[in-house]
Amino acid sequence: MEKNQIRAYLRALKQQLWLRGMTDSESLAEVESHLLEAAEAGLREGLSAQEAERQALERFGSAQVIARSFEKERKDPMQKILLALAVLMGLFIAYVDSRPTWDDTGITAGTMLLSSGLLTLLGYRRPWLIALAIGLWTPLYETYLSGNFRLPGVILLPLFILLITFVGAYAGWAVRLGIRKTFNLA
Amino acid sequence: MVGEALKGHLDLLLLAVLADGPAHGYAVIESLRTRSDGVFHLPEGTIYPALHRLENQGLLRSQWSEDGARRKRIYQVTPKGQKALAAHQNEWLKFSKAINATVGL
C-alpha cells in the first residue's frame, strides 16, 4: 500500500460515491476526520504510522462497502419516481416519433435533450440511467421492433439519440451540482 | 454474524449512545465497543450513513465543531429522537422477553 493510505482511501471512496451519483464533501470530511482520529489512536498504542493507518482503514470497511451503505441509506422515493418518469417520457417520445404523420426530428431531439436534462436537474443521481431510460425506446422501435436493420442507420441512430440524451442528462446533473456548490447545499 | 444481527438494531443502539450526550461518530463507535465489551463489530464506516439517515428523519441533529486542528461533526438526539428511542426500547424489551421465554432462559 502507498504511504498515505488514508488519502488513497478517500480518493477511492469519493470515486465510489461519484459512481453512485453522490457528491457529498461533508461526508468525506467526516470520514477523513474519523480515519485520522483512529490512526492517531493506533499511534498512541505504539503502532507504526503505516500499521495504524492500515488498521484504521480495515476497521472502517472498504470504500465499496461504505459507498454502498451510503447509497442504501439515502434511497428516497423521488429517485424511483424520476426514473419512472424517464421511462414514460422515453416511451411517449418513441410512440409520437413512430406515428406516420410525425416528421419533426428537431422537436423529437429537443424533447429528448430537455427531458433528460430536466430529470437530472430535479435530482436524479445517475445521469447515465436517465439517458438510457429516455433514449433507448426510440431506436429500439425504429430498428429492432420495426425490423429495419439497414446499415448504417441501425448503428448510427441509437448512437445519435443516446448522444443527445447523455448530453442532456449530464448537463442537467452538472447544473444541479453547480447550484448546490454555489449555495453550499449539503 | 454479530454484524448482521446488529444491522436491525442499529437505530436503537445509536440513539441510546447519543441519548447520554452529544458525540461525534468516532466517539459513538468507541462507546458501542466499550458498552458491548467489544462484542459489537460493524465496519465502522457504516454508522455514518445511518447517522445521516437518522438526522434526515429528524431524530438527530448535527453541527460541526473545531477540536484542535480537526473539525468534527457532533450529533445529538432531538426530542423526536428521544420519543423514537423510548419506542425502540419498548419494542426491544418485548422482543427479548419473547426470545428468552422461547429458548428457555
What does this protein look like?
The complex is a heterodimer of chains A (186) and B (105). Chain A has 186 residues and is mainly α. Helix content of chain A is 78%, strand content 0%. Chain A has nine helices and no strands. In chain A, helix 2 packs across helix 3 (49-60), helix 5 (77-98) packs parallel to helix 7 and helix 6 (105-121) packs parallel to helix 9 (153-182). The radius of gyration of chain A is 22 Å and the shape is elongated. The model of chain A has no long low-confidence stretch (mean pLDDT 86). Chain B has 105 residues and is an alpha+beta fold. Chain B is 59% helix and 17% strand. Chain B has helices at residues 2-7, 10-19, 25-35, 47-56, 79-103; strands spanning 23-24, 60-67, 70-77. A three-stranded antiparallel sheet of chain B has the order 1-3-2. The two termini of chain B are 21 Å apart. The mean pLDDT of chain B is 88. The chains are: A mainly alpha (186), B alpha+beta (105).
